[in-house]
Amino acid sequence: MKTLLTGGAGYIGTHTAVELLQNGHEVVIYDNFSNSHPEAVRRVEKITGQKIKTVQGDVREQSTLEAAIREHSIDSVVHLAGKKAVGESVAHPVDYFDNNVNGTLVLLRAMQATGLRKLVFSSSATVYGVPQYLPYDEAHPTSAMNPYGRSKLMVEEILSDLYHSDPSWSLAVLRYFNPIGAHSSGWIGEDPAGIPNNLLPYIAQVAVGRRDAVQVFGSDYPTPDGTGVRDYIHVMDLARGHVKALEKLQSQQSPELLTLNLGTGQGHSVLDVIHAFEAACKKTIPYVLADRRPGDLASYYAAPHAAQQTLGWQAQYDLTTMCADAWRWQSQNPNGYLS
Ligand code: WQD
């Protein structure tokens, strides 16, 4: 089975590539390297001992996609390419809809033109919006809170309409909670450009001395310690979820549309994460309590059972391992792939 991995050089993509290759899948990485490094692909080769075919292309280029699919005899697609920063999406909504929504439409056109019908799509728990109850299960109502979330929700709706118009498609929509951590080798990991938006890379950069202190956004939330609670999931667990979803689509005789949470079901506060990271790096992480970040929710976490029932998948790693692996990556590569 040969899978095209769009966004395959990115944080989720590299870890998913490792997991696919180590489970006997052939992988072609398709990436425009707008927010990733060719070095990341070389590191995946180093981990797996396999040479990886890579196509430099944008998901909005239908002819490049079709050529890649034909040349490499691709039979399924894991679609991770897209933009992912909430704040940037508010400032540049057109870029977000162009990359995330138009990019997916062009990919679907390329798949239609080449006869492909199996797609795993990278969605987000952000599509649930303000919790009406917790944990979020897949039946929780959806609503977007910003252009990034809206772009993910729009694609989910497009995929649902596509499936209902033409049930020859097999589609898996994976709603990620908060992916953190790194491959246990320390050779690949999260390497955000500029100032990290997300909590874990920020903490890791403080630990390695690149930044002074973590700002804790809000300490008056109605949570046990007043700081925001999220469902952090090890990126290797997330990667394994993609492999399971893809294998389910490939093994299934009848087409289907799966929509599944990938989370642990456990909530951890910002202070929990800081303290777990301190234990991992054996340093004190300076932090300051700051105002809430606009648009943030107090608390959310997954009901992870549907993925367990449907895919036999369950997250294995706890917060201690997530932080230990993130620290191994960050300490071995203080400046990311440019180290
Ligand atoms: C986690 C917690 C912050 C930074 C977002 C998107 C989601 C997904 C992941 C894509 C919150 C707090 C953070 C900091 C802090 N997107 N925090 N200081 O906001 O849950 O999810 O990223 O890839 O769709 O919405 O993740 O890591 O930014 O924040 O106190 O410097 O950490 O307030 O409680 P979030 P996050």
UniProtKB/TrEMBL annotation:
SUPFAM superfamilies linked to this entry: NAD(P)-binding Rossmann-fold domains (SSF51735)
Domain (NAD(P)-binding) ranges: 4-325
Keyword NAD: yes
Cofactor(s) named in the record: NAD(+)
Enzyme class name: isomerase
InterPro entries reported in the protein's UniProt record: NAD(P)-bd_dom, NAD(P)-bd_dom_sf, UDP_G4E
Catalytic activity: UDP-alpha-D-glucose = UDP-alpha-D-galactose
Enzyme Commission number: 5.1.3.2
Family: Belongs to the NAD(P)-dependent epimerase/dehydratase family.
Protein's name in the database: UDP-glucose 4-epimerase
Species assigned in the record: Comamonas avium
Encoding gene, per UniProt annotation: galE
